[in-house]
Amino acid sequence: MRPLRTHRAEGQSAGMKLRASFLRMILGGSSMGLGLLTGFSANAETLRLHGSSVVAQAMTAAAPALKSEFNIDVKIYPEGGSTVAIQAVGTGSADMAMTTRPLTAEDRSAYPAKRFNEALIGVQAVTLIVGAELWDAGVRSLTPEQVQTIYERRAANWKELGGPDQKLKFFNPTRGQGIWELFATWAYGDIRKTPLPKGLDLVSSGREARNSVQFATGSMSVATTRWVDQKTIFSLSVPDKAGTPVEPTIENIREQRYPLTKPLYLVVGDRPVGPLKKVIDFMLSPRGQQAVMKAEHVPIGEVAPAAAP
């Protein structure tokens, strides 16, 4: 039989090994150890975002940072439009609404128990674009009525609209996209009044619209302001309600004096706290505004420098 002190020594040695193993588990970087040390939960906080597909573009761009930095998983449902999204927040079936209009008195009165809050995170802006040859020839502004003539192919030459003697070609953004919807609503006053395009070449992205205009003489299209450089691609002015031409400058867009704009809002059902506040604060931060710009919208605040490739 071994001496009693030997058993004690072996017990002490085993206990030391167990404690050392436990410390290694905590300090060694395992997920279980980090949970014990910091209280961090591996389960992400999930938020349901419903509404405008236009706002959804910015939120999709921000989603990876929200997940990696705040452990917030945003589930984005870009359907139903602004009113339906606000109703979803009112009934509790959504945590946040993505809207392209501010809250109204009717929204608030429909859900008197809710203290709706909204945050403007950016502005969608689209512009009529032409190439250098039309710009240099004096095509600087178009009215909705003139655009209707172009869209419906009732004009075949720019001279019919007071421009140069040059064949006219229009590249139409794909019907149903946010760019087309904003363009059609401005041109016709109501998207439901916009006729189906006949015989128009379609472009599915801003890049495609820019390239088409740049290489097709006498052409025009519609794109976000990202694709305008005022060297090879130029943006046209459009009239405000008083008939005064307004240029799509950053200031005019942010102040929504330029007609072809939509505001981008996030709406919550009460004073934002916890994950909701983190999402809104992030979207208003320089990095969140960078996500807004990445989605081809105009930020309303300072934008963080782009990360090095």
Helix content: 40-55%
CATH class call of the largest domain:
Alpha Beta
Taken from the alpha-carbon principal axes, the silhouette is elongated
Catalogue the unreliable spans.
Answer: 1-41
Main beta-sheet annotation: 10 strands, mixed
Mean pLDDT: 87
Number of domains: 2
Q: Gap between N and C termini, in Å?
A: 70 Å
Report the strand count.
12
Beta-strand percent range? 15-25%
By helix and strand content, what is the structural category? alpha/beta
Q: Which fold name is given in CATH as the topology of the largest domain?
A: D-Maltodextrin-Binding Protein, domain 2
Under the CATH scheme, the architecture of the largest domain is 3-Layer(aba) Sandwich
Q: State the order of secondary-structure elements, H for helix, E for strand.
A: HHEHEHEHEHHEHEHEEEEHEHHE
* Structure annotation, total helices: 12
Assign the CATH superfamily of the largest domain.
Answer: Periplasmic binding protein-like II
Roughly how many Å is the radius of gyration? 28 Å
